[in-house]
Amino acid sequence: MNPGDNLPTRVLTVEAAPMHVIARVLRDPNPIHLDPKAAAAAGLGDRVINQGPNNVAYVMDMLLAAFPGYRLAAFDCKFLASVRGGDKVESGGVITEVAGDRVECDAWLKVEGGATAIGAKATMLRR
Amino acid sequence: MVDQFKFPGGRYRITREEDADLRQAVGSPPDPDGRAHPIFYYIATQCEMGISVGDLCAMCDFDVKDGPMMATSKVEYARDLMVDQEYDVGGEILSLVRKPSRTFGAMDLLTYRLTLSDQAGQVLSCINEWVLPRRGETAA
What we know:
Chain A is α+β, with helices and mostly antiparallel strands. In chain A, 24% of the residues lie in helices and 40% in strands. Chain A is elongated and about 50 Å long.
């Protein structure tokens, strides 16, 4: 584990159905996440828009899988672009610093063939 | 002036069922030790800050139908979040600042802090920034 090491990437295809589950958990009925017509009416294209916290969760899961025995101590992210239903996304990262039980990383979520949706800095701490 | 507005807050319980539903929805493995998914930092604070996102926007003279956008979110955890644990939510608005925007002409940047605490003290603190587009307006 050294600065510059890349973290194992995680790839998944974003489905529309789970957005309904997240809408209930988040208590957020915003129709751009549930109805393609609402997304289109808002000028956001013809597919539903994934909730931002879902995109963050993908990156957090990549980090937790990369560091067994560590917990997430800090996470600082920028929301850079939307992820839509049907998009294939890849979360990944790189170690930037190792100091004792603490590991600093840059992390991201990228849409295949498109933009970076999430850019983040994370601190992992050994339990 | 919304600066320094304190959220009414509330109490949020991360249920085992909701944690399982969320994990299934985002493709996350279950945690055998009862830890909640860390994204509950955002869900718990947002759900129980005591006012709706629509009301928060209205306080900023912004119609939620005009599309607020999450810009950044920063969280620091003192400990893991656990399922079937109740957390108290609190927080305050830190700033509302008008800025020029190449995309919208002008925008307001809303910054607020939310915390989760249990009997042992503060578990996490997060700071969220939202962009409130001010289409057709100027920053001056």
